[in-house]
């Protein structure tokens, strides 16, 4: 959709990989029953940031149509907020 | 005459892009509804969902995220305006092969999970889990084949269309992964 330099794409990919690795480290902590909500929110934030990078750099919408950029990021945010609400409900009324 | 033909080609390309985005928003609506259904069901049957989730393999799924993101990177390289035909082709083939790797890893993962799906308490969880991930998997497999077809004759317009769809499939997985496996 827009001009994307290979070097910029490689940089974006490396940042995405680091985010996935950070998520993998965090997910090990999710098993800890004392602090699941905080880690759940951190994992969802990472997901939104990854999605944002894919939209802006891989899809090339950083300078593309605003309506598509905002719409795609809003779609990810809506589902992330819904998942955060679910995690909050689970934290208020713990399993078992 | 030549100007008219160029204008016609531009109009056609614009129409193709419009139809693609209509299709993409239809897909995002479908995935959004399924993910929302999963979230609602996981609130209603919180205990069963929490136990069923322990049978999933988030490490395998996270590895698959890396595979799909790397594939997305190659797809973006292929869609770069300055890319030569050879570079476009190589990047599309790599993106497709990584797509097939995603499918293979996911099928292996299913093999480790399927035996738990028969347990009565986990029915709702695994029905939604297999529906969501299966629907996504079919998209990955199908569009990976299309990437290979486009790689054969990588016209910039076609490369732009197929890689846009590929990135949206990537986007769906990025959102779906933490919701199904972790949160």
TrEMBL record, chain A:
<keyword id="KW-0614">Plasmid</keyword>
<keyword id="KW-0812">Transmembrane</keyword>
<feature type="transmembrane region" description="Helical">
    <location>
        <begin position="37"/>
        <end position="60"/>
    </location>
</feature>
<dbReference type="InterPro" id="IPR005171">
    <property type="entry name" value="Cyt_c_oxidase_su4_prok"/>
</dbReference>
<protein>
    <recommendedName>
        <fullName>Cytochrome C oxidase subunit IV</fullName>
    </recommendedName>
</protein>
<dbReference type="Pfam" id="PF03626">
    <property type="entry name" value="COX4_pro"/>
</dbReference>
<keyword id="KW-0472">Membrane</keyword>
<keyword id="KW-1133">Transmembrane helix</keyword>
<feature type="transmembrane region" description="Helical">
    <location>
        <begin position="72"/>
        <end position="92"/>
    </location>
</feature>
<feature type="transmembrane region" description="Helical">
    <location>
        <begin position="12"/>
        <end position="31"/>
    </location>
</feature>
<dbReference type="GO" id="GO:0005886">
    <property type="term" value="C:plasma membrane"/>
</dbReference>
<keyword id="KW-1003">Cell membrane</keyword>
TrEMBL record, chain B:
<dbReference type="InterPro" id="IPR035973">
    <property type="entry name" value="Cyt_c_oxidase_su3-like_sf"/>
</dbReference>
<keyword id="KW-1133">Transmembrane helix</keyword>
<dbReference type="InterPro" id="IPR013833">
    <property type="entry name" value="Cyt_c_oxidase_su3_a-hlx"/>
</dbReference>
<dbReference type="GO" id="GO:0004129">
    <property type="term" value="F:cytochrome-c oxidase activity"/>
</dbReference>
<feature type="transmembrane region" description="Helical">
    <location>
        <begin position="159"/>
        <end position="181"/>
    </location>
</feature>
<dbReference type="Pfam" id="PF00510">
    <property type="entry name" value="COX3"/>
</dbReference>
<feature type="transmembrane region" description="Helical">
    <location>
        <begin position="128"/>
        <end position="152"/>
    </location>
</feature>
<dbReference type="GO" id="GO:0005886">
    <property type="term" value="C:plasma membrane"/>
</dbReference>
<keyword id="KW-0472">Membrane</keyword>
<keyword id="KW-0614">Plasmid</keyword>
<comment type="similarity">
    <text>Belongs to the cytochrome c oxidase subunit 3 family.</text>
</comment>
<keyword id="KW-0812">Transmembrane</keyword>
<feature type="transmembrane region" description="Helical">
    <location>
        <begin position="18"/>
        <end position="46"/>
    </location>
</feature>
<dbReference type="GO" id="GO:0019646">
    <property type="term" value="P:aerobic electron transport chain"/>
</dbReference>
<dbReference type="InterPro" id="IPR000298">
    <property type="entry name" value="Cyt_c_oxidase-like_su3"/>
</dbReference>
<feature type="transmembrane region" description="Helical">
    <location>
        <begin position="91"/>
        <end position="108"/>
    </location>
</feature>
<protein>
    <submittedName>
        <fullName>Cytochrome c oxidase subunit III</fullName>
    </submittedName>
</protein>
<feature type="domain" description="Heme-copper oxidase subunit III family profile">
    <location>
        <begin position="20"/>
        <end position="183"/>
    </location>
</feature>
<dbReference type="InterPro" id="IPR024791">
    <property type="entry name" value="Cyt_c/ubiquinol_Oxase_su3"/>
</dbReference>
């Amino acid at each position: 959709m827009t001009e994307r330099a290979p070097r910029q794409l490689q940089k974006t990919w490396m940042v995405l990989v680091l985010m996935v690795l950070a998520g993998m480290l965090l997910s090990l902590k999710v098993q800890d029953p004392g602090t699941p909500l905080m880690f759940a929110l951190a994992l969802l934030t990472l997901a939104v940031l990854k999605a944002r990078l894919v939209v802006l750099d891989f899809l090339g919408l950083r300078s593309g149509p605003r309506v598509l950029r905002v719409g795609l990021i809003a779609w990810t945010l809506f589902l992330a907020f819904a998942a955060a609400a679910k995690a909050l409900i689970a934290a208020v009324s713990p399993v078992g | 005459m030549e100007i008219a033909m160029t204008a016609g080609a531009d109009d056609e390309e614009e129409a193709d892009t419009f139809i693609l985005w209509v299709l993409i928003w239809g897909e995002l609506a479908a995935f959004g509804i399924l993910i929302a259904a999963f979230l609602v069901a996981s609130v209603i049957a919180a205990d069963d969902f929490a136990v069923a989730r322990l049978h999933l393999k988030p490490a395998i799924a996270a590895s698959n995220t890396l595979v799909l993101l790397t594939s997305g990177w190659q797809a973006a390289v292929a869609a770069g305006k300055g890319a030569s035909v050879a570079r476009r082709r190589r990047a599309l083939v790599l993106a497709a092969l990584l797509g097939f790797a995603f499918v293979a890893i996911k099928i292996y993962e299913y093999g480790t999970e399927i035996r738990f799906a028969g347990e009565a308490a986990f029915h709702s969880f695994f029905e939604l889990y297999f529906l969501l991930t299966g629907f996504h998997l079919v998209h990955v497999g199908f569009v990976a084949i299309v990437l290979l077809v486009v790689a054969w004759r990588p016209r910039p317009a076609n490369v732009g269309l197929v890689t846009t769809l590929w990135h949206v499939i990537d986007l769906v997985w990025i959102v779906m992964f933490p919701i199904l496996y972790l949160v």
